[in-house]
Structures are given as C-alpha cells and as structure tokens.
Design goal:
three-stranded antiparallel β-sheet, 5 strands, single chain
C-alpha cells in the first residue's frame, strides 16, 4: 500500500507480506520485499527501509509497536 502524496509528509506505508514457511508453526513475514531480523530477546525488529536496496540504512523498531 502506498499513501497519497502529501506536502512535507512521508506517506509511504511499509508493505507486510506473509510468506508460507516450510517449517510447521513458523510464521514468516517480509517487509518491503526483505525479511526482517529479530533481536535475540525478541524485543526489537530491524529491516532495510529502502525496498531491498542495500544503501547502508536499517530501521530498528520495538515489537510492541
């Protein structure tokens, strides 16, 4: 989903896609065509915010929102 253009506001909404896992009960999701990585304790998620283009940027977000 891409938002409508707006002045001075970033309206790009990340696309979250469910991917079927070959392992039962394991859920996989892709964010903007790349797989996120979880911290060892599961409290943080990191992902490439630039649609898979490797430009050195990553986003880090809390799993509780």
């Amino acid at each position: 989903f891409r938002g409508e253009d707006a002045e001075d506001i970033d309206t790009v909404v990340p696309f979250l896609e469910r991917v079927e896992s070959p392992i039962p009960k394991l859920k996989l999701h892709k964010i903007n065509s790349s797989f996120p990585a979880f911290s060892p304790d599961g409290s943080l998620i990191t992902f490439n915010p630039n649609n898979g283009i490797l430009d050195g940027r990553v986003h880090l977000v809390k799993t509780d929102g």
